[in-house]
Amino acid sequence: MNLVRAELLKIRSTNTWWVFALISLPLWALTLLINWLQSDALTSGNLGEMSPEQAAQLSAAAHPDALSANLFTTGQFFGLLIVMLLGIIVVTSEFFHQTVTTTFLTSPHRSAVMAAKLVAAALLALLFWVVTTAINLIAGSAVLKAIGVGSQLGNAAAWEAIGLNGLAYLLWGVLGVGLGVLIRSQIGATVTGILLYLGGTIGAAIAISVLASRFGDWINDLQLLVPSLASSLMVTGAEIPGNPPRWAGAVVLIGYAVVAGAIGTLTLRQRDIS
């Protein structure tokens, strides 16, 4: 616990965490506006002509379970990016400020230090989740009432999505720590993380859509191989036709986090820090 407290103190003593918090606010507001407009369009039925398959997907997306889950997890896409970057900084700041030698002289058991960093990153990620969820419950309930489906605060599917969203935040904090160990440069790790997250998500979504139209809907299951898309599947409030189940996204993301944590620990134990 002393090591975890020390890691949390290092985070609090920098300006990074609140800078990221300020960045996340306008991104959250933009996402809320998009979700509001989308939810209003779904409930109004003003979606134009579509195929039977599209109609089935949109009907599922317009279900109160899906609407509430979507609104109560508003900001997940950018929020996960933020906590991943914070996880990266938990590690790379040691090398950037050249305090890593002091850290390992004080605590020579590198595995314990790595575990403390993982726990600290996870706790910080959960804090972001708690704050955004509290805001989402207020704003999301207001939007749901405005579009005529009620607050949905008693909806079990919505609370399941909220819980899985918290798991996603925790796991992305762990993934960030793993990436930070592999790439010691703070700038290098941050840029790589952003490119992998944004570029990988957009590129994979386009590729899967094109391949699915050519080879069939089974290609949609490949979403699970992309961490950010797996995270999105975890918070789907209703089973959308053609998509893998939510639990599958959770299992895959847990696997990525376990591998990242294990590789990060082994790398930190063997790396020369001089």
If you had to describe this structure to a student in words, what would you say it looks like?
There is one protein chain. By secondary structure, the chain is mainly alpha-helical. The chain is 78% helix and 0% strand. It has 11 helices and no strands. The model has no long low-confidence stretch (mean pLDDT 82).
Q: Give a count of the beta strands, DSSP E runs of length 2 or more.
A: 0
The mean pLDDT is 82
Secondary structure category: mainly alpha
**How many individual helices?**
11
Characteristic terms for this protein:
274 residues; mainly alpha; 11 helices; globular
Describe the structure concisely for a colleague.
With about 270 residues, this protein is mostly helical. The protein is about 80% helix and about 0% strand.
Write the layout of secondary structure elements.
Layout: H1 2-12, H2 16-44, H3 52-61, H4 64-72, H5 76-96, H6 100-106, H7 110-146, H8 156-182, H9 186-215, H10 227-234, H11 246-270
